[in-house]
Amino acid sequence: MSRESRWWFLRKIGRVLTSGFHRVEFADFWLGDQLCSLAFPLGGIYFVGCSYAVGFHSDHFQRCSTLAPWGVPFFLGALPLLARFFQSVRRWWDSSLVTHLINAGKYFMGILCCFLYYSWRHHGTCLSEGFRSRLSTFVFLCFFETIGSLYAISWDLLVDWSVLRPHARFVFLRDELIYSSYILVANILIRFNWVIYLPRRGPSPPVRSLIIALLEVLRRWQWNIYRLENEHIGNMDQYRVTREVPLPYSFDELGYETDVGDEDDRTRTRSATLSSDTCCPELRGIHTRER
């Protein structure tokens, strides 16, 4: 990126980190949504530092996952969700639209799910030996993750993408559709990617976290396509992407002549005057007196 682009990006990052203290623009909440899909690498910042501190032994992942200060990776991973929560509250404060409060509830649910996940991982999986007493944490995690996934899916389909219209030209989609609708199915499935953590047997926790992170990046990429498509269609419907806004009347009905006609009339008048002066010199005096 150029120097101006880097400074622009850093300013937008600063606006995301100070969400709630200023008016929210499109680039602010758009960048905040992208950061929400980076919860795994943000939380991994603490894990990398812990691994260097304890040494890269065979059990370094377990040691860094069960150390006392698990709140640090939780805070880093939930920071984008917290920023989007404050952005939604600020948009509600500025516009008084209840839909922004509903959106804030979605991010609050995401923060709660993130908290339950780190708490569950810190105390150990309830399905492993020696952790049967922590079944309640596991149940709460599954319950709120299910509600959070359904909450996010409903918002994606009804608000961000404006689909599931009952009388749309494309059945249960919308009147204007540019990209393939398979993205809708993929988004719903990936929203439940947290179930990868549930099986007792299978890949190790780091591998599962990597798979979930890659799936989330894929989901966000597809989400961006449909979100921008919906934004562009909405701008076209409100005539925000054209220089000429159609008016409810025409100039012909009001009796006005077009500029082209006026220009032609002026040209013909000047041509007639020049012709009469050139062809009939005796009429010059008449024209002069009339003027």
Automatic annotation (TrEMBL):
<dbReference type="GO" id="GO:0005794">
    <property type="term" value="C:Golgi apparatus"/>
</dbReference>
<protein>
    <submittedName>
        <fullName>EXS-domain-containing protein</fullName>
    </submittedName>
</protein>
<dbReference type="GO" id="GO:0016036">
    <property type="term" value="P:cellular response to phosphate starvation"/>
</dbReference>
<keyword id="KW-1133">Transmembrane helix</keyword>
<feature type="transmembrane region" description="Helical">
    <location>
        <begin position="98"/>
        <end position="118"/>
    </location>
</feature>
<keyword id="KW-0472">Membrane</keyword>
<feature type="domain" description="EXS">
    <location>
        <begin position="64"/>
        <end position="259"/>
    </location>
</feature>
<dbReference type="GO" id="GO:0000822">
    <property type="term" value="F:inositol hexakisphosphate binding"/>
</dbReference>
<feature type="region of interest" description="Disordered">
    <location>
        <begin position="256"/>
        <end position="276"/>
    </location>
</feature>
<feature type="transmembrane region" description="Helical">
    <location>
        <begin position="38"/>
        <end position="55"/>
    </location>
</feature>
<keyword id="KW-0812">Transmembrane</keyword>
<feature type="transmembrane region" description="Helical">
    <location>
        <begin position="178"/>
        <end position="198"/>
    </location>
</feature>
<dbReference type="InterPro" id="IPR004342">
    <property type="entry name" value="EXS_C"/>
</dbReference>
<dbReference type="Pfam" id="PF03124">
    <property type="entry name" value="EXS"/>
</dbReference>
<feature type="transmembrane region" description="Helical">
    <location>
        <begin position="138"/>
        <end position="158"/>
    </location>
</feature>
<dbReference type="GO" id="GO:0006817">
    <property type="term" value="P:phosphate ion transport"/>
</dbReference>
<feature type="transmembrane region" description="Helical">
    <location>
        <begin position="67"/>
        <end position="86"/>
    </location>
</feature>
<dbReference type="GO" id="GO:0005886">
    <property type="term" value="C:plasma membrane"/>
</dbReference>
